[in-house]
Every structure is written in C-alpha cells, then in structure tokens.
Write a structure and sequence with these properties.
Helix content is about 30%, strand content about 15%. By secondary structure, it is an alpha+beta fold. Strands 6-1-8 form a three-stranded mixed sheet. A three-stranded antiparallel sheet has the order 2-5-7. Strands 3-4 form a two-stranded antiparallel ribbon. It is globular. The model is unreliable at about 160-174 (pLDDT under 50).
Length: about 170
C-alpha cells in the first residue's frame, strides 16, 4: 500500500502509443539508410560502391553490385555508383559497423522503428530506392552529428580542391 501511495501522486510516465510518442534521443539507432546530397536521389548518392560495409557486416545482410560505368557525383567528380544496394532488415542487427567503416559518410542509422509488414520475405528486403534519404532528413533526425559530418566533408572537399590547384601548373594567358 505504501508503494501505491508513493507513485499515486507522481507525474505519470505512461505514453498512449500510437497517439502520443516519446521523443527519441539523438543517438538512437535502428536500421541503416543511404544519404544523398542533391534533389535527385540517384545522382546525389554519396555511396561509391566500395563494398567495405558489405565486407564488414557481421550478419552479411548488405548486398551491393557495383556499376560498370561511372557518373558524376554531387560534386561533379566521376565516380562508380551502386547499381544494386540491398539490406535485409530481417537479418540486420543494428550494430552500426557499416556506418563506422564507411569512408564517404554515405550510410547512417535511421530512427524509424515501425517496419512491420504483412508479407514475410520481399518486404523485409530494403532496396536502394527505399534506403535513399536526403541530407535534410539526416539533419532532421541527427542535427548535431549531421552538422559535424557536413563540416568534415566540406573541409575535405576544400583540401582536395586546394591540393589539386597546388599540383596543377598555372595557366598563362597568351
């Protein structure tokens, strides 16, 4: 009876889900998604199909097929791209190793957890179109981390451009 009286006058912590939802912390993670930087998900995809995430994934739930040709990325540099990029979310254990090993900051962890489906097999295989989400979406769910990533990418791009200018001989107008 004492325990009941103790909790009777405290603030209620019950959430009436799905009408009410708790705010998820910024470091919450669920399943991976691919980040793209332009308006076009196909053209702005950061992934260059290096397959490091596929090799490092403990349950081997990532499947990538590299393209045969190259196309310009969001910065105009000619890059390979993933022709196929699939993640089997029924096998994924949300360990975030794919995010940590990606040198291009192309794969991040999402906060979406309502992924139940009626079908058993095909619906649990997330294809490239389902996985691609914009950089603004990434800023919305992980604002602090996304700002740091964008600053690092901008610094790397500036360093790369200045490095190219130093290596390139000066053009003389005649």
């Amino acid at each position: 009876l004492r325990v009941t009286l103790k909790y009777l006058f405290r603030k209620k912590i019950t959430v009436q889900y799905p009408e009410e939802r708790d705010r998820l912390p910024e470091n919450y993670r669920n399943f991976p998604f691919l980040v793209f930087d332009t308006d076009d998900a196909e053209a702005g995809l950061r992934c260059v199909a290096c397959k490091i995430c596929e090799k490092e994934c403990p349950p081997q739930c990532i499947y990538i097929v590299k393209s045969e040709d190259k196309k310009p990325d969001y910065m105009g540099k000619s890059q390979f791209y993933p022709r196929l990029f699939d993640i089997d979310i029924s096998v994924c254990m949300s360990c975030q190793i794919c995010v940590e090993v990606c040198p291009f900051e192309a794969i991040k962890m999402d906060k979406v957890f309502e992924l139940s489906r009626r079908e058993r097999f095909d619906s649990l295989l997330m294809r490239k179109g389902d996985l691609a989400k914009s950089n603004t979406y990434y800023h919305g769910i992980h604002p602090i981390e996304a700002a740091e990533v964008d600053a690092n990418l901008l610094a790397a791009a500036d360093q790369g451009l200045h490095g190219l200018e130093a290596d390139r001989p000066a053009l003389v107008e005649q």
